[in-house]
Amino acid sequence: MLVQVLFYAFSAVLIAAALGVVVTRNPVHSAMCLVLAFFTSAAIWLLIEAEFLAIVLVLVYVGAVMVLFLFVVMMLDINVEEVKRGFTRYAWLGWLIAFLVIAQIVGVVWFRGLGIDATQGAVPLPADYSNTRELGAVLYTQYVYPFELAAVLLLLAIVAAISLTMRRRPGLKAQDVARQVAVRREDRVRLVKMDAVTRDAPAPRQDGEGKAP
Description:
single chain; Four Helix Bundle (Hemerythrin (Met), subunit A); about 65% helix
């Protein structure tokens, strides 16, 4: 009973956070809603005894990917008004994705009518069972090439994010490393020779000079 209550509570928070990602106008607030959605998804995975996946979701996505998203959003200096004007242009894509999600939910309900209970909880596992070992055995044997391909795609995403932040825009002070390395002493320092200049010592002041009358 408690597991069901926690599941529905976390599910409500997850749906609200997912709506916040889409509805929020500020990109930073949208990224923070996505962080909340990741945390809530990790809590739901803990309920089905998928501890390793929950920890990976928090450490990798929240701790690394979302921090990268926040830095990219802040450094790109996104024009929110321009994004609002282009919202209607891609509205059809959003409706298409929403239709696919609704179709998946209807498919789950339909499968239940066929005798397949998709909402049945996970079967309790023995105490010495390690889902981490089982996942690692499958990941590095059967799916080793897709795993390496995902790593390459993440590397390309990081390089693309850095390239976007290095684009030229008005007011940006770019650093030209090649010019800094090729600079010579004669270009920066100029030695000037001057003759020594001597001044005569001031005459001693007489008594009474410089005093107020």
